[in-house]
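Hi P.,

Sorry for the delay on this. The queue was packed all week, but I finally got your sequence through. Input first:
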Amino acid sequence: MIFVLDTNKQSLSPCHPAVARKLLKQGKASIFKKYPFTIILKKQKQNDCKQEYRLKIDYGSKHTGLAILNKDNILWLGQIEHRTNIKKNLDDRRGFRCRRRNKNLRYRQPRFLNRKREEGWIPPSLESRVQNIQTWVNRLRKLIPLTNVSYENCKFDSQLINNSNISGIEYQQGTLYGYEVREYLLEKFNRACIYCGQINVPLEIEHIVPKSGGGSNRIDNLGIACHECNQKKGNMTAEEFGFPNNQKQVKKTLKDSSVVNSTRWKVYEVLTNTGLDVECGTGARTKMNRINLGLPKDHHFDACCIGQSTLSKLYFKTNDILYITAKGRGSHCRTNLDKYGFPRGYLARQKYFFGFHTGDTAKAIVPKGKYKGIWSGEVACRKSGNFDIKNKEGKRVA
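Then the structure:
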């Protein structure tokens, strides 16, 4: 279905693609937005929409599914891919600042006495996910008259994920109950290096999957190794180091479930602030609805099945899914560095050039020269006006 706006940019009921093509061909409407595709009427039309449109949100750590329904009709499907590099960028920035303070470079005083976290503060990597959902809820409200929101507000039991037999007082007794970390690891690995097997030598705590490779400080990811093996292993995983059996003991990370548990009520607060009626659903109900409807496991299909409002039959009015990737609002670093750390170029302070900014989808008609033809893809902007276009195959056209 195609989103429709009136002349005052107020949302109307969506229409069939055939109706949109007819309006565009007759000159009664023009294209307002391509993603998601929206047309705007050239003549004023009274907004007499009495139908209810429900937005359903399947919130996840890496992907969030979106679906817009009108009773049993699925009108629009989308999927947001969240950013996962925010923490790494903040760690890099902290490392650069620390280096400037300790080297003979431009000095920047450390800030630690003037920082105050507001009530309800959450880390930037989590705040980004909440803001992605908030942004798209506000965007869709401008394109279609939404009346209700369904949201899967589920909590993951991380201890039960690790140990399916846990019960009772065991919830209060973690893996290290009665131990310190070092003593637990020494007893677990019989006071021997997990790589070379040496005993009666000084042993160090080390990460089986390094932190630089996404490993955590969980006890399942820690081992005991001698100094020589620890240094030789470096930032390799145990499997890359030649010990796949050691890596098998590392359980699946619970990072994704922790992200959802930490932000689920923050997302709910954002949705309630929109003024729409919010319905909360559980993961179990979503799964039951999906199985009864015979839909495959995917984020946008899960979104269609959220909550008690899901009917016994659903009819798809769309075959397309809008895949959305969160890119952020630009880079903090304004200098490009080579592999030795020396500057090789400086980024411009402005974001838009000639009406475009890097990442926009553009179409270029080149009448002559080496790149003669019609090219479309993502544009990389330059201040000089000579843009690059990256097509689907990854080829750059200057």
